[in-house]
């Protein structure tokens, strides 16, 4: 699941990079490259529920925003316009993979061990 989440966040950053190249909007694009890369590093390096849950929450919010953005839907409907289509597909599938991977890891994470006086 970790590999799925990290790959999803990296795919999202690559999609954002494609949009930066296509549109020339460096500043907003840089943010949407940096955040997924930071989350890929977070998921790759941490295993606690809080970090993984935060990554899943951000992936869910980004995915919702991505799918509610009418330009994304239009780009996905026109695969003949290759650059924008690849951008939208990478971001959508990347965010979905990141959400599934990080949420699954958060749910199955052991979290901090609690000591009990009851023997196992």
Give short descriptive properties of this protein.
single chain; 120 residues; mainly alpha; 5 helices; elongated
Q: What is the global morphology?
A: elongated
- Give the helix level as a range of percent: over 70%
Number of helices: 5
Q: Which structural class do the helices and strands define?
A: mainly alpha
List the helices and strands and how they pair.
Elements: H1 2-23, H2 26-45, H3 49-68, H4 70-76, H5 82-108
Helix pairs in contact: 1-2, 1-5, 2-3, 3-5, 4-5
Q: Would you mind describing this structure in some detail?
A:
Helix content is 80%, strand content 0%. The protein is mostly helical and 120 residues long. It has one domain (2-108). Helix 1 packs antiparallel against helix 2 and helix 3 (49-68) runs antiparallel to helix 5. The longest helix is centred in the last third of the chain and has 27 residues, at 82-108. The chain is elongated, with a radius of gyration of 17 Å.
Quick overview:
The protein is mainly α and 120 residues long. It is 80% helix and 0% strand.
């Amino acid at each position: 699941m970790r590999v799925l989440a990290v790959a999803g966040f990296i795919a999202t950053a690559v999609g954002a990079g494609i949009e930066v190249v296509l549109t020339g909007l460096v500043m907003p694009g840089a943010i949407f490259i940096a955040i997924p890369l930071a989350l890929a590093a977070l998921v790759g390096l941490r295993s606690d529920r809080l970090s993984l849950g935060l990554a899943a929450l951000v992936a869910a919010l980004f995915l919702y925003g991505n799918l509610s953005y009418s330009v994304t839907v239009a780009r996905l409907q026109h695969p003949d316009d290759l650059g924008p289509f690849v951008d939208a597909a990478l971001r959508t599938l990347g965010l979905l993979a990141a959400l599934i991977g990080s949420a699954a890891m958060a749910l199955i994470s052991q979290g901090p061990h609690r000591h009990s006086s009851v023997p196992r």
